[in-house]
Amino acid sequence: MNDSVIKIDFSRRKQLEEMLGADHVSFCYQCGACVGDCPSARFHKGFNPRTIMMRALMGDVDELIGPDSIIWLCSNCYNCYQRCPQDVRPVEVIVALKNLSARECGEDDEIVKIAQRVRETGRSVPVTQATQRMRKELGLAPLEDLDVSELEIILREDEPESVKEDRGG
Amino acid sequence: MDAGRHPNIELMTYSEVESVSGYVGNFNVTVRKKARYVDQDLCNACGDCEKVCPSTTPDEYQQGFSSRKAIYMEFAQAVPSAYLVDMETCLGTNPIACGKCIDACDKDAIDFDMQDELVDVQVGAIIVATGMDVYDPTEIIEYGYGRYQNVITSMEFERLICAGGPTEGHFIRPGDQTRPKRIGFIQCVGSRSKRYGSEYCSNICCMNTIKDTLLLRDHYPDTENYVFYMDIRAFGKSFEDMYIRSREEGVRYIRGIPGEIIEDPKTGNLRIVVENTMTRRVEEYDLDMVVLSVGVKPRDDSPNIRKLLTLSKTSDGFMMEAHPKLKPVDAPTKGVYFAGCVESPKDIKDSVTQASAAAARAQILLNAGKVQIEAVTSRLDQALCPKCGVCAKVCPYNAIKWEKGQFPEIVEAACAGCGACSAECNFGAITMRHFTDQQIIAQVDAILEDHPMDKLVTFACNWCSYAGGDFAGISRLQYPVHARLIRTMCSARVSEDFVEHAFLQGAPMVLVSGCHFADCHYINANRATVKRVQRLWQKMERLGIRPERLQLEWISAAEGQKFAKVMRHLDGLRKDVTKEEVAYTIEVLKANKMKGEEKKAAMDRLTSPRPPAVFEEEEAPAGRAWFRCLSCGHTWKGAHNPNAEPVEWQCPLPECRSNSIRLMKPAKKKVAEHAPA
């Protein structure tokens, strides 16, 4: 494709909007408020929620997904969600892109590992010896194992009939 | 000050308008002249009283940077040049408590027995110039206004750099009274935001900041100045030159809105982290002071003014003009005009322009001595009137005065002729001159006299839809020949009876069309149209008539294309209507007009040619509702607040965009029996 010509892939954009259930991304006016407060952007020059929004608007989704995409650098801190004057919710767009990436490009091993950890321990970050030592130094109670029995119900793949009925379908 | 000296101008300062009655040319205004406790004719503003007053309070005029006494003058150039006592902070007149000012005044001008005075004024025209308020950025926690002493607003900056300000023009930062060297401005604070303040552009802040930076370059060339912006809107005459000059003078403009301001608690210095969107780099700036370029908003008390003068507002909260393009200075209420920011945010030049225009508009009215109004006004027939007062409720101009148990009184000079009252009246007691029920019914009859199945009965409002039809014709746009237009002044004139009569006479399709919501030429009369059409759809469905046969469209005078498109589409819908359907419609409407047993018998004889549709969706949660486009059939769930200002509904499908949007009410489902827990 000729680089000087910008082509907008409306079908891809629509696909993203359908995943989001809204078109809030189209209200982005590229002010950069999301970047100024983004911890990932401060530590990684390549990560920029504003340009991710711009590329999402252009339907440039293929460039944004895949195991090597910059979207995985997002720390889900929701600062951008708080700051955005146009209610674009950049983090929700990035989460949608992550889901799309898993669906289309296969699941990344690292991500699967984290998901499994959540399922098994109820925590996304592992509790290490160092963590426990630091907590002790700060005078905090040690972290106990969590009860994950309820989590197992939530994460069941086949939805129980009773839950389905509650949701009206 | 010139206005204060002018022999033909009477200034009533420190006063409030209590009530306004009457109409164009004959307004009666009651003004409360608040007690100043100082005789403004005797006071010579020597200031002796102020020196002895022991009560101090923050000075509002200086944005709280300095203090004033309980007896004070708002600012040095105030008109009239006389003091007044603020009773909220005054210690009182009891000699034991205080009363020092009375002793200090050589002129004996201070009188604590003064009372508020109610003054009646007869005026012919009213100009509303009540101005605007400034956005308070305290709620934006990331900028720390109110917490960080060196974060100030552009209004506070104005006081700090003004020779008449608390520092006599010596520019210092509030935190430690030192002169700041690195000053940053953040644009669009409380403007263009869905989160804080307003969604509109406040219009003046860009140029205000550019002016401020030039002032700083001029007074203190050793300072560094930064402006953080998303768009600089320098659109006025020679504004762009000023912007270029500011950049030439060395002011740095960085395109990017800072995410956060972080204060160094020791030094009071501020760090801004911002993405420079031009370079795509995250940059950090250490600054001594940050000025938030705050937006403007309608005054908090503007609802009172709207109530006093029967005005309405636009979606941004500022006052609505009689017409956004052709009557930008006139209020919808005749004899009332706007000047300045009460109508929209604007700068000095635009305010002066509008004020001059408002004065000239008022002059035209006053010099003529009498007003010519259109003969299209409403008239009440007391013999038919049950004194219910619905006409007064629906009148957008408050031209109908009504009290419970009394006959309504129509003020013809204030009546604009929309006809909403006449359509709303169920008793035929209000006649709309030149658009009487008989005239309109006769037009319907004539249209449907022969070949009714080939006719598309269209009610079009005078200002927009009828003109839109004209425009389609002038533009040589093709549309089917079946449309027959009946002109009314406003779509709100279209009574439910007219539509029913058209169906009774065998009309396959009826279209009601009017101005877009924002363009309604009768303030908001076409909201009544929507209510009426919704009622009709409800009724049609109840009687087994397909509601799709009544359509609603907003077509502006410039939308010839839309007019032609609507006509083409409706012609397709018209062909879909069967003869059996029309015959049934006539029968059922006739039966519905009967009463008691006779009606029941007539209804029992009928069978609808199409089974009535049942709407079987779940009840929508609070704040949302089901909508159906009666043009294309699309059904969706959308935001809906019955108590909020009505908005214009439109089909969300890009290929449809019809305004025939019906608010759907889900059929009441039988409550399932709950098994005991």
Quick overview:
Chain A has 169 residues and is mainly α. Chain A is built from eleven helices and no strands. Chain A has helices spanning 10-20, 33-36, 39-43, 49-57, 61-64, 79-83, 90-105, 109-121, 129-137, 149-154, 161-166.
Textual characterization of the structure:
The complex is a heterodimer of chains A (169) and B (677). Helix content of chain A is 52%, strand content 0%. With 169 residues, chain A is mostly helical. Chain B has 17 helices and 30 strands. Classes of the chains: A mainly alpha (169), B alpha/beta (677).
Number of strands of chain A: 0
Helix content of chain B: 25-40%
Biggest sheet of chain A, open or closed, and with what strands and sense?
Answer: none
Beta-strand fraction estimate of chain B:
15-25%
Note poorly predicted spans of chain B: none
Assembly form of the protein: heterodimer
Topology overview:
The complex is a heterodimer of chains A (169) and B (677).
Chain A: H1 10-20, H2 33-36, H3 39-43, H4 49-57, H5 61-64, H6 79-83, H7 90-105, H8 109-121, H9 129-137, H10 149-154, H11 161-166
Chain B: H1 2-5, E1 15-23, E2 26-33, H2 48-52, E3 56-58, E4 67-69, E5 71-72, E6 84-85, H3 100-104, E7 117-123, E8 126-128, E9 132-134, E10 151-153, H4 154-161, E11 182-189, H5 205-219, E12 224-229, H6 239-248, E13 252-255, E14 260-263, E15 270-276, E16 281-287, E17 289-294, E18 296-298, H7 302-309, E19 336-338, H8 348-368, E20 378-380, H9 390-394, E21 400-401, E22 409-410, H10 420-424, E23 430-432, H11 437-447, E24 456-461, H12 465-474, E25 483-488, H13 496-504, E26 509-514, H14 526-542, E27 550-554, H15 560-576, H16 579-593, H17 596-605, E28 624-629, E29 635-639, E30 661-664
Parallel strand pairs in B: 8-19, 10-17, 11-12, 11-17, 12-13, 24-25, 24-26, 26-27
Antiparallel strand pairs in B: 1-2, 2-7, 3-4, 5-6, 9-18, 14-15, 15-16, 20-23, 21-22, 28-29, 28-30
Helix pairs in contact in B: 4-5, 5-6, 12-15, 16-17
